[in-house]
Known about the structure:
By secondary structure, the chain is an all-alpha fold. The chain is 73% helix and 0% strand.
Amino acid sequence: xxILEIFSxxxxxxxxxxxxxxxxxxxxxxxxxxxxxxLKPLMLFAIMYVVxxxxxxFGADVPHFAVALLLGIILWNLFNETxxxxxxxxxxxxxxxxxxxxxxxxxxxxxxxxxxxxxxxxFIVVIVFALINGVRPAWSNLLILPIVFELxxxxxxxxxxxxxxxxxxxxxxxxxxxxxxxxxxxxxxxxPISMISSRAxxxxxxxxxxxxxxxxxxxxxQDARHVLISPANPTLWGWTSNFFVACWPVVFSLLxxxxxxxxxxxxxxxxxxLV
Length: 275
């Protein structure tokens, strides 16, 4: 696969340089600097916790829902930062594309790695917050790693699509902002998945299962909460005995990655002429 070109010495050095530069420049002019990578999701969490958990009583029947809320926010931030940054990455490095011959995958992957570093800092905060709130560590917590990898593949695949499309379609940025905003509320982050089951009448359980099947981010968030916080958090594979149905979100994420990679490969031939 051509994406493996990024592991050549030249591309690997360029990848590391781009990740380092992007991360340093992100908060260069701010007083708090890198702290903003942690403070932004914490501030969003504080607002949503007060409004939805304290006042509206969302998740009152879910163990450690405050931790689940913070975990959902940082998972969504990883998805949002990876896809948005990836979308803008090719156009943002137009000068580099015209001057140097290198694997164009490096640009999108470098952008996604910066988002992954941010996620790493935020995840440490979640772990500390979980321990303070009485969540007991277990070996099953390590299953969070393949779940995050699934999320990363999904987001990277979408990034390949968006970055290639954005070269010709600059209106894509505000469109994607609306899509991600709608996706945030369509994903059980500020509310538990059980709320869909209980408040949608007799079809509630069906709607909840459909959300987990058709929205891979919903399945990822629920799986992460299940393995990291409490087994009481329902999952798609816990609701069905059908192996294909249970595995569909994972297969879907892999398909998105492969299709996005293929689309990017075809379109990348013309990037230098268009950006």
